[in-house]
Amino acid sequence: MRLGLPFLLALPFLLGPAAGDWGDLETLSPDPSPSSFPSYDFSPGFSSGSGSSSVSQSFSNFTGSKDDRGTCQCSITLPDTTFPVERVERLEYTAHILSEKFKIELSKVKEYVHLISVYEKKLVNLTVRVEIMEKDTIQYSELDFELIKIEVKEMQKLIIRLKESFVGSSEIVDQLEVEIRNLTLVVEKLETLDKNNVLSIRREIVALKDRLKECEASKSEMVPATPPPPAPGSCSHGGVVNVSRPAVVQLNWQGFSYKYGAWGRDYSPQHPGTGLYWVAPLNTDGRYLEYYRLYNTLDDLLLYKHAQHYRIAYGQGSGTAVYNNNMYVNWYNTGNIAKVNLSTNKVAVTETLPNAAYNNRFSYANVAWQDIDFAVDENGLWVIYSTEANTGNMVISKLNDTSLVVLNTWYTKQYKPSVSNAFMVCGVLYATRTLSTRTEEIFYYYDTNTGKEGRLEIAMHKMQENVHSINYHPFDHKLYVYNDGYLLNYDVIFKREPQQDV
């Protein structure tokens, strides 16, 4: 490498020694001859002392000359180890790469900071919602839990992404992860604290929203004024002319899988307004009546509290009825009928029902094992069934509720398997049939007082497809309907008694 004299004079500043270390160079004459240039050693290490330069490692081949115009030239060969150019270039390239990576990571951190602020607001909202659910369990539904679970899972995913993006884990991220895990445990615990079976009920009620909307819309419809009801337990009316929209009481205590069964309220002529409520779902086979429950009040039934739980091992079908503190059932696998004392859960009386078909011979349409169906009205205890001699048509018998002896029998012309269910009101049989998945119709009646029978067109709206039992209560003037596991009731609307000519 060839350097001019000005560069040579500036070289000490480039190499970094103190100014006094280059005193000998300042004595060079402006016009030296080639022979007058001394040889100098240049190295990174100089020692300052008496003005002379001491060298630990010398630069090699330092020579000088003068060109034709009198300009001095010098030539210096620098060792490779003097300045690591290649290492500096590599360092500069590495620094550039790291800078680009840092920019990318910084943008990610900014994005995560934004997401954390968003989820922090969601976490506050979830905390408020959880506090509300802790205070009042009636105000939540399964859908609320599902939404909370989804949001918590989103936050868990964010935490995982944050931890993967950092080397190690920051204290804030760890704390958030712990809080989200705790929130998940709280939600799961709340979901299991369903003491009143609220979720089980509301899960099924969600499927009924459309029907409930129809009920709400029906309020605005012009409905003709209904006559005042007769006195409780009285038959001073002209018969059933309509029924109200159904009131959904609740799902039976066994759950949605127990679609078959019966329910109602005990009627006692001596104490007509104080009867207990009973619920008797069949086992999932739709045949075997094994368990039933009694409730002193409707509130107890609604809240599943203070229930008297009993087991019997001989009931069959959903034709059960309760009258005067006794339950009446079809004895399993026979044509016999039985009376069970509800105070003791003991069989008081069994009796053979004369000529009655049984074991699914002439059951109702869409309802198996209900060949024998008990009914209660203002006049007492009845049983509805069929016989081979009457070719499957409906037979009505009035029973002595104490001995189960048949007091009187009436034969109708209505084929029982074409009927979906039936009930008695003031000695009149009313039979229903299915019009659609949401509508039944009271289409037939038989009056045991006059022997007259005929057709009716009274629509009964329902929540589910199949009606498994209908029990009438003379004091309430209500129908208690077991509808695919749901407990419904209807107000019965009567025709005014025709005025007598004076």
Characterize this entry briefly.
It comes from Equus caballus (Horse). Residues 173-218 form a coiled coil. The chain has 502 residues and is α+β, with helices and mostly antiparallel strands.
Number of helices: 7
Query: Strand count, sense and closure of the main sheet?
Result: 7 strands, antiparallel
Q: State the helicity in percent bands.
A: 25-40%
What is the spatial order of strands in the main beta sheet? Answer: 8-9-10-11-12-13-14
Structural class: alpha+beta
Number of domains: 3
Q: What is the CATH topology of the largest domain?
A: Neuraminidase
Determine the mean pLDDT.
79
In percent terms, what proportion of residues is strand?
A: 25-35%
For the secondary structure, the number of strands is 25
Give the class-level CATH name of the largest domain.
Answer: Mainly Beta
- Identify the overall geometry: rod-shaped
Q: Would you identify the regions where 5 or more consecutive residues have pLDDT less than 50? A: 1-59
Q: In angstroms, what is the radius of gyration?
A: 49 Å
CATH architectural group of the largest domain: 6 Propeller
Distance N to C terminus: 145 Å
Domain Olfactomedin-like: 234-496
Subcellular location: Secreted
GO molecular function: cadherin binding; structural molecule activity
Signal peptide: 1-20
